[in-house]
Amino acid sequence: MVQPILLAKNIKKTYQSGAHVAQPVLNDLSLTVENGEFLAIMGPSGSGKSTLLNILSTLMQPTSGSVTINGQDILAMNDKDMAKFRGQDMGFIFQNYNLIESLTVAENIALPLNLQKKAPKLTQERVQVVSELLNIKELRHKYPAELSGGQQQRVGAARALVHEPGLIFGDEPTGALDSENAREMMQYLTKINQEKLISILMVTHDPFSASFASRILFLNDGEIAGELVRGAQSRESFYQQILQQLGNFEE
Amino acid sequence: MLNKIAFKALRQKWRDYSVLLIGTTIAVAIFYMFTNIAMNEELLRSLSTMTQKMIVFVFVLGQILLGVITFVYLNFANSFLVRLRQKDYGLLSMLGATKHQIGSLLLRETLLLGLISSILGVFVGMGITKLSGQALMQSIGIKLSHWSVGTPKVVLVTIGFFLLIFLFNGLYNRWRLMRLDTLTLLQADHVVSAKKVNPKRQLILGLLGIILLGTSYAIMPKVVQWQMIGLTVDLILNVTGTYLFVGQTLGLVTYWIGKSEFGQKGLRNFINGQLRFRLDEYKRILTMIAVLFGLALGAISVGQGYYVSLPKQAVENDALTLATKNPKTDFADLKDVTYQAQLDYVVKDQTVYFNKDSVKKAQVPTLVYQQNGQPDAKPKQTTVDVNHPEDAYTLSTLANYVTGVPFGSDVQLVNQLPAGKQEIIKLVKVKDLQANESVLKKMAANEKAYMSNPDEMIPGAYGNLITLKTIFGGLEFMSIFLGIAFLIMLASTLMFKTLSNVSLDRRRYEILAMIGTTPQQLRLTAFKDVGILFFIPMLIGLMDATMGMQIFKPIMPDPYSGFSLGLMLVLGIYGGYYILTSLIYQRLVLKK
Ligand SMILES: Nc1ncnc2c1ncn2[C@@H]1O[C@H](COP(=O)(O)OP(=O)(O)OP(=O)(O)O)[C@@H](O)[C@H]1O
Ligand SMILES: [Mg+2]
């Protein structure tokens, strides 16, 4: 069997907040992201979705547990190696403001390649390719402030995949979008996932966005409370299944 | 209640406020020092006997300039304060506080800050005045008799001035705040859009900037000929040129870098983008700082230049180094003695009699001024011609000295000294006046007992040096003082301008970190990011001062002689501010 791209074991996270002992936000949580998988994590507000994502994407340290990405134990790395690892093997798409507003669209997209000191020629080519893929070619010389929310989000996605990482993380990537833009964004992510074979790990509380994933984990009180696999069914019926599952949780 | 909130706010964000407080305290302290001198008329008068009016004028001008800079500076400091509080105000507003309440809260906070920093600043100002006065006077080797740490009047003027500015700023802040709605307040980190530029227009203006700046440099050597008009025109050319250069020419540069392959390496494009984005907002302040940087460096260099030329002038104005009536004086302590002699003399009815033969034998060095009936001719270094003693400068100074009556004494060279009290005077000349200064100082001190008029200067180059130092030393002191004061003010201004924009930058650095920039790269980038803002005005200011020294060529022997010291001083202070700013910037911008 191919090794999973991400393996998290017994993750525990407690925020230190002054004197009183805090409840753990994540409690002994384990999960796996298979290579090429599109995994969504759902859960109510405050259930620890962002916390989990930040830990898995090396932006935050867990209180205990282990995270392995591509066979590498990321918690054993120092800050520098971790940053390099993020720059090379990961992409990030966040809810809003994930572009640098002092740089043009093209410059924003090129950043990860600049950081890896890739040749300027190659950089231009790559920017060109992903701009076409996400349909933002005409926006190349604009500044983020001149773009709509949906356009900004697509630029963010372009930047997340320009260096062809193995894994893209998304924290509510459709959170700031209306349903039409959200659908478009999710279609692009599906395209990236299927055409580029990039694995995607996304957290969201929106069932519609989640229905584009191939598998969904439900998070509740810091633990995984359920799982849905799309399998061969259509997105629409998967969507219905998710709504049903959410209804069950409420009861 | 609101008072309580205002005070609590100060306590909560203590670290950020302390930056602000220190900055404003420094401004008050500098202003205090300056006012203290400007209001000390006795001191100003004693600094220079010849240029009384001039120096009062310089100080009035300086005071106005400093007032303006202080005003601008406090404006930046205040917008830093508003940025610190904006989000909290938004919350308060959302929770139902009225605009009016929040406005008066902000006003109170501003005034509270003003009051604390004014009082602290006056104390710090007194401290620095005392310390810097001592240090500078010691290094120059003069004594300023009217130097004082301050009077109640100075304290009142300073505190009054600052409270007025803070009141104004507070009212302005309140007015601005009232116009914003709750949402804008909550989204304190508002998104700024890039300014659209017309490339053709920018190219023309950018080139014009270079041309104007270049012209202002080109005419500098001739400016003095055209007097006030020349200086004014040059200043206007320089300021306009700098403004266009910063706003337009550099804009072009960032545009090209963005397009070039050079910009594609590492985070260069990020730094370039930061600059490109900031230029429009920063062009005024960077221009002001560039011009003031040049002025500060120029002032220090000119003052220092005059000062280092003093020993040379002192030596040129006398053939001897020292003459002493103290028979116990031993010239053996002096280094490189090129001449020494001893003359007997008798004073009778204000006439001083020397023995003609011994003067001839001693070959007394002297300056001779009157040559071919041209009184203005450059003095000639020669030895005393015993047939024309009236021409010999050395003999007349010696005579004036021993009688203690300047301008009234007569010299006679005779074959036989007349009856009377026979005294001796010893003469010495050394190769290097400065190398012997400390020994000469001791000799001069021991001489006091032998002087008929203790206020008089000892004859010789050493005496000249002391006289010149009391005249020009004060000027030099002032120029260094002025230069440093301005430099500190402008560096603090830039510091606060940079720091008050931190909230916008923070998010950008967060994104960089997220997409894989190592902590070390981030720190380096922050250093460069701030560095460019400091570098641009420094570069222009350095050019300004380097070229500007040309203005003094016709009126100074060597205008560049004080330049290196000025440069060291200015770069030291400015560099210190840069490091401080980038460290604070890093702390604010980079998350642990
Ligand atoms: N820096 C922090 N310090 C202390 N507690 C925190 C911190 N960040 C999050 N928490 C707490 O951890 C819990 C989970 O937060 P998290 O942001 O992971 O939730 P989430 O599932 O992403 O919620 P949402 O859907 O609202 O974004 C919450 O109870 C929150 O209050
Ligand atoms: Mg969240």
From TrEMBL, chain A:
<dbReference type="GO" id="GO:0022857">
    <property type="term" value="F:transmembrane transporter activity"/>
</dbReference>
<dbReference type="InterPro" id="IPR017911">
    <property type="entry name" value="MacB-like_ATP-bd"/>
</dbReference>
<dbReference type="GO" id="GO:0098796">
    <property type="term" value="C:membrane protein complex"/>
</dbReference>
<dbReference type="InterPro" id="IPR003439">
    <property type="entry name" value="ABC_transporter-like_ATP-bd"/>
</dbReference>
<keyword id="KW-0547">Nucleotide-binding</keyword>
<feature type="domain" description="ABC transporter">
    <location>
        <begin position="6"/>
        <end position="246"/>
    </location>
</feature>
<dbReference type="InterPro" id="IPR003593">
    <property type="entry name" value="AAA+_ATPase"/>
</dbReference>
<keyword id="KW-0067">ATP-binding</keyword>
<dbReference type="GO" id="GO:0006865">
    <property type="term" value="P:amino acid transport"/>
</dbReference>
<dbReference type="InterPro" id="IPR027417">
    <property type="entry name" value="P-loop_NTPase"/>
</dbReference>
<keyword id="KW-0813">Transport</keyword>
<protein>
    <submittedName>
        <fullName>ABC superfamily ATP binding cassette transporter, ABC protein</fullName>
    </submittedName>
</protein>
<dbReference type="GO" id="GO:0016887">
    <property type="term" value="F:ATP hydrolysis activity"/>
</dbReference>
<dbReference type="Pfam" id="PF00005">
    <property type="entry name" value="ABC_tran"/>
</dbReference>
<keyword id="KW-0029">Amino-acid transport</keyword>
<comment type="similarity">
    <text>Belongs to the ABC transporter superfamily.</text>
</comment>
<dbReference type="GO" id="GO:0005524">
    <property type="term" value="F:ATP binding"/>
</dbReference>
Automatic annotation (TrEMBL), chain B:
<dbReference type="InterPro" id="IPR003838">
    <property type="entry name" value="ABC3_permease_C"/>
</dbReference>
<feature type="transmembrane region" description="Helical">
    <location>
        <begin position="563"/>
        <end position="585"/>
    </location>
</feature>
<feature type="transmembrane region" description="Helical">
    <location>
        <begin position="154"/>
        <end position="172"/>
    </location>
</feature>
<keyword id="KW-0813">Transport</keyword>
<dbReference type="InterPro" id="IPR052536">
    <property type="entry name" value="ABC-4_Integral_Memb_Prot"/>
</dbReference>
<dbReference type="InterPro" id="IPR027022">
    <property type="entry name" value="ABC_permease_BceB-typ"/>
</dbReference>
<keyword id="KW-0812">Transmembrane</keyword>
<dbReference type="GO" id="GO:0055085">
    <property type="term" value="P:transmembrane transport"/>
</dbReference>
<dbReference type="Pfam" id="PF02687">
    <property type="entry name" value="FtsX"/>
</dbReference>
<feature type="transmembrane region" description="Helical">
    <location>
        <begin position="17"/>
        <end position="34"/>
    </location>
</feature>
<feature type="domain" description="ABC3 transporter permease C-terminal">
    <location>
        <begin position="65"/>
        <end position="180"/>
    </location>
</feature>
<dbReference type="GO" id="GO:0005886">
    <property type="term" value="C:plasma membrane"/>
</dbReference>
<feature type="transmembrane region" description="Helical">
    <location>
        <begin position="54"/>
        <end position="76"/>
    </location>
</feature>
<feature type="transmembrane region" description="Helical">
    <location>
        <begin position="477"/>
        <end position="499"/>
    </location>
</feature>
<feature type="transmembrane region" description="Helical">
    <location>
        <begin position="530"/>
        <end position="551"/>
    </location>
</feature>
<feature type="transmembrane region" description="Helical">
    <location>
        <begin position="240"/>
        <end position="258"/>
    </location>
</feature>
<feature type="transmembrane region" description="Helical">
    <location>
        <begin position="110"/>
        <end position="128"/>
    </location>
</feature>
<protein>
    <submittedName>
        <fullName>ABC transporter, permease protein</fullName>
    </submittedName>
</protein>
<comment type="similarity">
    <text>Belongs to the ABC-4 integral membrane protein family.</text>
</comment>
<keyword id="KW-1003">Cell membrane</keyword>
<keyword id="KW-0472">Membrane</keyword>
<feature type="transmembrane region" description="Helical">
    <location>
        <begin position="203"/>
        <end position="220"/>
    </location>
</feature>
